[in-house]
UniProtKB/TrEMBL annotation:
The keyword Lipoprotein does not apply. InterPro entries: BP-dep_ABC_trans_perm, MetI-like, MetI-like_sf. Keywords: Cell membrane, Membrane, Transmembrane, Transmembrane helix, Transport. PANTHER family: INNER MEMBRANE ABC TRANSPORTER PERMEASE PROTEIN YCJP, MALTOSE TRANSPORT SYSTEM PERMEASE-RELATED. It is a multi-pass membrane protein. Belongs to the binding-protein-dependent transport system permease family. The chain crosses the membrane at residues 12-31, 69-92, 104-125, 137-164, 185-206, 244-262. This is Carbohydrate ABC transporter permease. The keyword Membrane applies. It comes from the Bacteria. Residues 69-262 form the ABC transmembrane type-1 domain. One of its GO terms (biological process) is transmembrane transport. It is found in: Cell membrane.
Length: 277
């Protein structure tokens, strides 16, 4: 005996509502807390009782925090650009050029990203110090690529293997070089995969904490996750929850905007890049 249609519909929307509330409530409560100050921070409420922007003014008026946001944008953007450029060329070789040990090399590349950060921290610290990159944003770009590059290479190689070989052979017959084939043919077709992997790499670089805490030592060079963790109150016994939540909301909004923008581009890219086989 099957359940009535209304019962299935009710159960489905109830489950959707629970998932949405579980996902959005922490961010909603962070926004709610960021709009409160003083004693209101310690009053438990789920609807805005006051609308105080003093926490946002306090954070945004701090010139150091603005510089730290710029640092995070620089590190995440450069990491994504370099990772995608190297991943496209590497995936072309792994997907189209046959050589001994290709499968083992691909598995090795993927296994690198499985190591926990703490396991490679000491070795990376020695490399960063040897290259003279300590307390430099380039130390984060260098270290983040250890985890973003294997993932992007793996995903783009999988997508490139699914593309018909005939389009590449036709370009070779027309006299196109390997770089021209990658730039004029594969990049447009790989756009959905590039957007997906680039967005995930950006989020990972934006939110990374351990390497940023270890390799950067001054406030002017730090990125926003470390900056938020080091926000202090007027005394050692005070935790400025309002400022912390305001800073968290400010640095989370760009990620939300990026996801909304690139979500539409992923769908359009999947449709435009379809190849009839």
């Amino acid at each position: 005996m099957t359940a009535p249609a209304w019962l299935k519909t009710t159960g489905f929307y109830t489950l959707v509502a629970i998932i949405v509330i579980q996902a959005l409530f922490p961010f909603y409560y962070a926004v709610l807390t960021s709009l409160e100050d003083g004693q209101a921070l310690f009053d438990v409420n789920y609807l805005p009782a006051v609308f105080d922007l003093s926490n946002y003014r306090s954070m945004l008026s701090d010139g150091v925090f603005g510089k730290q946001i710029v640092n995070s944008v620089f590190v995440a953007t450069v990491t994504v650009i370099i990772s995608l450029f190297l991943a496209i060329t590497a995936s072309f070789a792994l997907a189209r050029i046959r050589f001994r040990g290709r499968g083992l090399l691909l598995l090795t590349i993927l296994s690198v990203s499985m190591f926990p950060q703490i396991a490679v921290l000491s070795g990376l610290f020695e490399l960063v110090r040897a290259f003279g990159l300590f307390n430099s944003l380039w130390s984060l770009v260098f270290s983040y690529m250890i985890f973003t590059l294997p993932f992007t290479v793996w995903v783009l190689t999988t997508f490139m293997r699914a593309l018909p070989v005939e389009i590449e052979e036709a370009a070779i017959m027309d006299g196109a070089s390997s770089f021209t084939i990658i730039r004029r043919i594969f990049v447009p077709l790989l756009w959905p995969a590039m957007v997906t992997t680039g967005l995930l790499a950006f989020i990972q670089a934006w939110n990374e904490f351990l390497f940023a805490l270890t390799f950067l030592s001054t406030d002017a060079q730090r990125t926003v996750p470390v900056a938020i963790a080091l926000i202090s109150g007027r005394s050692e016994f005070e935790v400025p929850w309002g400022n912390i939540m305001a800073a968290s909301v400010v640095v989370t909004l760009p990620l939300v905007v990026l996801v909304l923008i690139f979500q539409r581009r992923i769908v359009s890219g999947l449709t435009a890049g379809a190849v009839k086989g």
